[in-house]
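Saturday, quiet lab. Running sequence design on the structure tokens for the scaffold JK sent over.
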């Protein structure tokens, strides 16, 4: 719908375009005054001095902290360097000792190998003798020896009645058992296989 003109003209006691110009000029002036106030408040003379003092004070504080840190770290650094020097000397001494022991071990390696081989051959021989004795001669001899040792089953006269041929076999088996036990005990092994 088209707009209709007001029924009667509105009476104005002031000029609207002039009023708009005055309002715009006043707004611009107030904005400039506000900006000027902020700038003037920020840029006072004593504030420049205060900013300079703050910069100088911060620089001095940084320098003092750096000097204190260097002093503290300098003492600690000196102490740690001394400890590092001592540790390096100790390490060098241990390396020399290790090299000496390695040379000694290299010199002893053939002797160790020879002793180990001799032990293995001796043990194999004794094991074979032990197995042989266990298969053929040991059960009758051990049975006879057990009967002779058990009290009350035989008299002293009967104990001496063990055949003379059994005594050397028993003594030989005893010696072999002792050698087996001694040789395996030195090596930390068991004389008898686990069942």
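Result came back. Writing it out in full:
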């Amino acid at each position: 719908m088209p707009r209709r003109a007001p029924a009667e003209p509105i009476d104005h006691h002031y000029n609207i375009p002039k009023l708009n110009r005055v309002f715009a000029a006043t707004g611009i002036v107030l904005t400039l005054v506000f900006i000027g106030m902020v700038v003037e408040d920020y840029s006072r003379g004593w504030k420049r001095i205060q900013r300079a003092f703050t910069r100088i004070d911060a620089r001095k504080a940084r320098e003092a902290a750096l000097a204190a840190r260097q002093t503290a770290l300098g003492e600690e650094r000196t102490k740690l360097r001394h400890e590092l020097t001592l540790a390096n000397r100790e390490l060098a001494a241990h390396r020399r000792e290790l090299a000496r022991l390695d040379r000694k071990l290299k010199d002893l390696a053939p002797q160790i190998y020879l002793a180990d081989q001799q032990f293995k051959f001796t043990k194999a021989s004794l094991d074979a003798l032990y197995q042989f004795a266990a298969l053929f001669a040991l059960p009758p001899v051990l049975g006879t020896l057990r009967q002779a040792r058990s009290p009350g089953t035989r008299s002293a006269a009967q104990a001496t009645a063990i055949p003379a041929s059994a005594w050397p076999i028993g003594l030989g088996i005893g010696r072999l058992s002792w050698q087996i036990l001694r040789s395996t005990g030195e090596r930390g092994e068991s004389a008898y296989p686990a069942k």
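Notes for JK: The CA atoms of residues 99 and 178 lie 40 Å apart. The chain has one domain: 16-150+163-187. Ask whether to fix the surface positions before the next round.
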